[in-house]
């Protein structure tokens, strides 16, 4: 749902399947493939040669996915599918096919729409346009947005550390870190943007959107629209006739089970062979029905598995309980109270959302407001937004996924820095979208990045720069 990928999102189809970065090796210049192409639905994508034309990328909704050269005019996406570029008789590239079934000609041809469009060269480097080679710290601007700001004093270890962080991104040591914000002792003290991103740019939040759904569940319960997390799920979906695989276990699934990823449904985004994998869900016409029809794999409330389908059901339950679309409810009970007006969120759980996967798009400074509200037990700028009891319950550990504590669509992660354990509970989205609470250090960190389907730089940035700065260690 939120490019769940971990949303493990690879974008759900065609070129953008999960994976890392591959070195270029192959015949012919990569520039011949560049341009704007058709993509799934009515969307498009850009094929771009990377810095110095060393790699080929598919750029989809601002996210870049590498393609590995295999043989003449054939590349592999990170799911191992063959992407065949097609040429006309004159030798010019006119489109591509993704090999999903034999023979190749039976697969859809995605046409080249504009062979002249190019990805901005400056977008491949971390240093913003016009910025000096050497970074100089500056205090965040004070805006009328409810976020207090403060300047870090000369000699403050945090100032030295975050300056070093920004310089390292300028120098492309941490590719595709798009923003870094630090809130300490009640004020925003660091706010920088890289790779042509700026304060006004909405950023895709991927699976960090899951946490928004958990917050909205809490708001619905607070309003009395949902009795409690103990309500059973199936009665909310009586409109769906003749559900499949219904047994006593499925009837026993509760909202608590969805929120903690313990529904017991045969759904695991981390398992490509799972019948409820998000990729399969994204290809279905009705995602809600897809999830409801899944067989059971275990008793609800027992072992947890990372399943985006749980979030789809929870979001739809809120809609039915409050009698309005999820995003309208979010605007009323969450975004408006936080002063968030510039956002985009299409919660349409069906094939129309295969590319976007129901994720929210937010500006990083607005993401920080959400983090500050959570850190302050539901209060922002002196006003209560959500009950403290819900924030406590949402961020508490209810399960374990991959050896990591898990709350209600919320991770209980931690990090060792110089042998000391630091709790880093967080909302987390594929590519490096983070809201990180450092309660012991009275700080909140927001990061956005574009390392989709690859390891993010989060722990390195926390461990080398932010946490040492907050604990008073100079570089």
Which properties best describe this structure?
475 residues; alpha+beta; Lipocalin; Beta-lactamase; 3 domains; eight-stranded antiparallel β-barrel; five-stranded antiparallel β-sheet; 22 strands; 22% helix; disordered N terminus
* Share of helical residues: 10-25%
What percentage of the residues does DSSP assign to strands (E)? Answer: 15-25%
Give the neighbour order of strands across the main sheet. Answer: 1-2-3-4-5-6-7-8
Distance between the termini: 40 Å
**Morphology call:** globular
How many structural domains can be distinguished in the coordinates? 3
CATH class of the largest domain: Alpha Beta
What does this structure look like?
The structure is a single chain. This protein is an alpha+beta fold. The chain folds into three domains: 30-124, Lipocalin (Beta Barrel); 157-201 and 363-470, Beta-lactamase, CATH 3.40.710.10; 210-217 and 224-335, Beta-lactamase, CATH 3.40.710.10. It contains eleven helices and 22 strands. It has helices at 157-170, 209-222, 248-251, 255-259, 278-282, 287-292, 308-322, 326-335, 364-375, 388-395, 458-470; strands at 35-38, 44-49, 56-60, 63-71, 74-76, 82-87, 93-98, 110-114, 177-184, 187-193, 203-204, 343-345, 360-362, 379-380, 383-384, 399-401, 404-406, 414-417, 420-423, 426-429, 433-438, 443-449. The strands form six sheets. The protein has an eight-stranded antiparallel barrel. The protein has a five-stranded antiparallel sheet with strand order 10-9-22-21-20, with helices on both faces. A hairpin with a 3-residue loop joins β20 (426-429) and β21. The radius of gyration is 23 Å and the shape is globular.
